[in-house]
Amino acid sequence: MGQRLTQIATRTGDDGSTGLGDNTRVPKSSPRVQAMGDVDELNSHIGVLLCETMPESVRELLVQVQHELFNLGGELSIPGFELLKPEAVAALDRALAEHNAQLPRLQEFILPAGTRGAALAHVCRTVARRAERSVVALGAVETVREAPRQYLNRLSDLMFVLARVLNRLDGGDDVYWRSERLARAQDPSVG
Fold first, then answer.
1. Cα Rg for the chain, rounded, in angstroms?
2. What spatial distance separates the first Cα and last Cα of the chain, rounded to whole Å?
3. Cα–Cα distance, 117 to 48 (Å, whole number)
4. Residue 69: pLDDT above 80?
5. pLDDT category, 23, cuts 50, 70, 90?
6. Where is this region: Disordered (predicted)?
7. Could you point out which of 98, 106, 113, 132 has its C-alpha 20 to 30 Å from the C-alpha of 3?
8. Contact at 8 Å (CB) between 148 and 72?
9. d(Cα 121, Cα 163) in Å, to the nearest integer?
């Protein structure tokens, strides 16, 4: 693995390039750097979400996710390296099934709203989708293992489910989209 930073302001990136973990330099506009940045941003948003009140099991899950995202960022920073294990994807699948089983079936689309914690989880969901798209774009020009893409896909789904869990902490509910089309279908006198 690359050298650990002992100095933050190195000035080596002033020319528009950045160093990867294998000590190669690439433009800061490269798909690899974009993917690394999106994963880092996602991890930061999860850190903000962790400032909110939540069940301890959800907190522990999100802390583990942060560690896995750090592994994913490390893997992205070293072409050909593997840090994120397939077991991490399986752990998200289990968490997704466990938390989703506790929720009522969705009857309508929901808005990314509700409690502050739920809204932050929705932000994490959308950033996870962007990070997934960045990893897919990177995979179109360089070899990328399946696990990073799969992990981000599952994580986005999990963040949607956790938003619903967080909306119900104190007896709340999701914020449902008011579809005019559905309202007319349910009551022809509307609209």
1. 19
2. 62
3. 9
4. yes
5. confident
6. 1-31
7. 132
8. yes
9. 5
